[in-house]
Amino acid sequence: MTSTKRKGADGEPDGNEVGKKLKKKEDDNDSHPPTLQSEAGRFQGDDDATMLLLFHDLYYSINTFAGKYFIGSPYVQPRKSKDKDFFGSLTSNYGTYLTSKTEKAKETIIQAVIWNKLMDPLLKQPTKAFLQIPEALIKNNLSDDCEEFYSWRTLTANMLSKKYKGRTSWVNGGPRRQEWVKEMATLLSDLSVVNQRARLQGSLEEIADLAIKLATAMACSRAGWVCTMKDPRIQRLNGFRITTDRMEDIDLWDEDEGHGKSMTVDLVKSPMLLKFGNSNGEKYDQCLVARLAEVVVVRRKTTD
């Protein structure tokens, strides 16, 4: 399928104005390693199997949560302005997903919500779980030396991950983890078939536990593991170029497959898992795709 990037009339990705601002703000605050040309391929290393297993466990838990609590009515949209703004930053068509009776439509956007809410506080920069110093500050003092940066990150993670108890802690009962669970239960309760925050919080605790395990493993690895909802070549929350080495279309709407400019990515359901370098702490200029992003592709709207 030919590569393309979704654009609106003004040249920006489709979505409401607030959604665009949220995307730009996240782009500006991105703490990923320097953008490198990446490619799909095989990857080898002692921790590869472990990392994929941890990612799969989290992925399965999120899918199970969405399937258990968000199949069927109520088919409603968020009421608070800040919640509308957040959903609008994921896709301009969030109302269609939340109110559609198409199988898995509502589940799909709920899964996207959870993954996105895990990115900034944890998975995009896994050392946030036990380090209050931004990684960007460290990188700025290392002259973009990837090997030095990852050596620092690995040593720091191994020293602090089992002992840190500060305000950003994601361990069981940790302040940031509790904040995340409560925030997510509040955001999702009105959309759930049970509308009981206590029940949602129990399952969200399990998701948080699996997320911190994945983040800790990513941070402690000598390779540069990155979990991201954005294509590293264009640094956008959605609007992936349509390219099969980065993403997989889940065929949600059963539209006839199109080509080139006729199709666009409407929603990123789950992230890519990227591996910069190898497990021996070498070759950080290489990046392999360990797990494709899952996306919803739709036919681009035409204007008369």
Textual characterization of the structure:
Helices cover 42% and strands 12% of the residues. The chain is an alpha/beta fold and 304 residues long. The chain has one domain. The strands form 2 sheets. The chain has a 4-stranded mixed β-sheet with strand order 1-6-5-2, with no helix packed on it. It is globular, with a radius of gyration of 19 Å.
Instruction: Give the N-to-C terminal Cα separation.
Output: 25 Å
**What's the rounded overall pLDDT mean?**
78
Structural category is alpha/beta
List the uncertain runs: 1-16, 18-38
The geometry reads as globular
What is the count of distinct domains?
1
Sheet with the most strands?
Answer: 4 strands, mixed
The count of DSSP E runs of length 2 or more, i.e. the number of strands, is 7
Helical amount: 40-55%
Helical element count? 9
| Strand/helix succession | HEHHHHHHHHEEEEEE
Gist of the model:
By secondary structure, the protein is an alpha/beta fold. It is 42% helix and 12% strand. The model is unreliable at 1-16 and 18-38 (pLDDT under 50).
Structure keywords:
304 residues; 4-stranded mixed β-sheet; 3-stranded mixed β-sheet; alpha/beta
